């Protein structure tokens, strides 16, 4: 769906922030865009064999939903400890879920593909997925013609690489900025060093923003980010929590911690970066009620 752009009021020297509410997608996250585009391009033979992917939750639901709409079989490998709300939602769409240790999920996904012939749809390192996510950028340019900066949360890099391609093709003057938790700042580190940086599962698992706990960005994503993204910044866990609460109290939008990372980045860095009129992408809102109550308390 075409998600709305909503406003959060100005704070101190920070002008009002606009948020792109991707948490209102039918599966609660932007991932439905990339999954839908990837599945739409499958051949008849690939459709007959079904699809498989690995994901911490939102891509899992997206593949399950898009596969159900297309009438094809889907299997999803998820890390042990994934939020129950995301596992259960993936199963409700009809997908078969396999839980494995986080560091083995890609290998487990490949094993299922080898055994069943299912077609792998990666969560972010895939041109079809990247293109689908890029429609967020197209909508932002249509909805906010005077936008000067777009802030995007980053895990594997699918969302920001798609948005960067779309925005820079049409408005190269608009800044695209990546935002990560300090405790999962592999891209920010790599961006500064000008090469991909890989963090361990033990490092990235420390952040409450479980949707961006990937160990590194994808290879294709990195090439796009290196060419088109203007900056990469990080935010603290407390700044993420504050952003979740702010988005809820002012915009009445539920944001999971990873979805609120970009808004946190705005209030932490807007003055230093000179962002101007900014849209922050709230990438998802799949969080259980007990956890959300703790975040907004």
Q: Quick one: overall form?
A: globular
Strand content: 15-25%
Mean pLDDT over the residues: 94
The end-to-end span amounts to: 31 Å
Strand order of the largest sheet: 1-2-10-7-8-9
Helix content: 40-55%
Uncertain residue segments: none
Which descriptors apply to this entry?
297 residues, alpha/beta, six-stranded mixed β-sheet, four-stranded parallel β-sheet, 10 strands, 47% helix
Topology:
Layout lengths: L4 E4 L8 E5 L9 H10 L3 H6 L1 E4 L3 H13 L3 E6 L4 H9 L3 E5 L4 H12 L2 E2 L6 H7 L1 H9 L5 E5 L4 H13 L4 E7 L4 H8 L7 H4 L14 H10 L2 E5 L1 H15 L5 H17 L4 E5 L6 H8 L1
Parallel strand pairs: 2-10, 3-4, 3-6, 4-5, 7-8, 7-10, 8-9
Antiparallel strand pairs: 1-2
Helix pairs in contact: 1-3, 1-6, 3-4, 6-8, 7-8, 8-11, 12-13
Describe the fold and architecture.
- 47% of the residues lie in helices and 16% in strands.
- With 297 residues, the protein is of the alpha/beta class.
- A 6-stranded mixed sheet has the order 1-2-10-7-8-9, sandwiched between helices.
- The longest helix has 17 residues, at 257-273.
Summarize the structure.
This protein is α/β, with parallel strands linked by helices and 297 residues long.
């Amino acid at each position: 769906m075409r998600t709305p752009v909503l406003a959060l009021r100005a704070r101190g020297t920070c002008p009002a922030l606009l948020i792109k509410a991707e948490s209102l997608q039918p599966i609660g996250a932007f991932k439905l865009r990339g999954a839908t585009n990837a599945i739409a391009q499958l051949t008849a033979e690939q459709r007959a064999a079904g699809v498989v992917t690995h994901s911490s939750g939102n891509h899992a639901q997206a593949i399950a939903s898009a596969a159900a709409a297309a009438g094809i079989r889907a299997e999803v490998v998820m890390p042990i400890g994934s939020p129950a709300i995301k596992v259960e939602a993936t199963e409700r769409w009809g997908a078969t879920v396999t839980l494995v240790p986080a560091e083995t999920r890609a290998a487990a996904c490949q094993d299922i593909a080898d055994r069943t012939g299912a077609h792998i749809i990666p969560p972010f390192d895939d041109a079809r997925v990247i293109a689908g996510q890029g429609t967020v950028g197209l909508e932002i340019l249509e909805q906010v013609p005077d936008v000067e900066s777009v802030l995007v949360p980053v895990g594997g890099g699918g969302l920001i690489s798609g948005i960067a391609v779309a925005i820079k093709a049409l408005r190269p003057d608009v800044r695209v900025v990546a935002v990560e938790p300090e405790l999962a700042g592999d891209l920010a580190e790599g961006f500064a060093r000008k090469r991909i940086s890989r963090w361990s599962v033990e490092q990235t698992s420390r952040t409450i923003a479980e949707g961006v706990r990937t160990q590194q960005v994808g290879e294709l994503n990195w090439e796009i980010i290196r060419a088109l993204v203007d900056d990469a910044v990080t935010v603290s866990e407390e700044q993420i929590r504050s952003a979740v609460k702010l988005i809820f109290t002012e915009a009445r939008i539920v944001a999971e911690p990873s979805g609120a990372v970009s808004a946190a980045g705005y209030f932490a860095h807007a003055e230093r970066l000179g962002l101007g009129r900014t849209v922050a992408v709230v990438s998802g809102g799949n969080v259980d009620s007990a956890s959300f109550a703790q975040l907004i308390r």
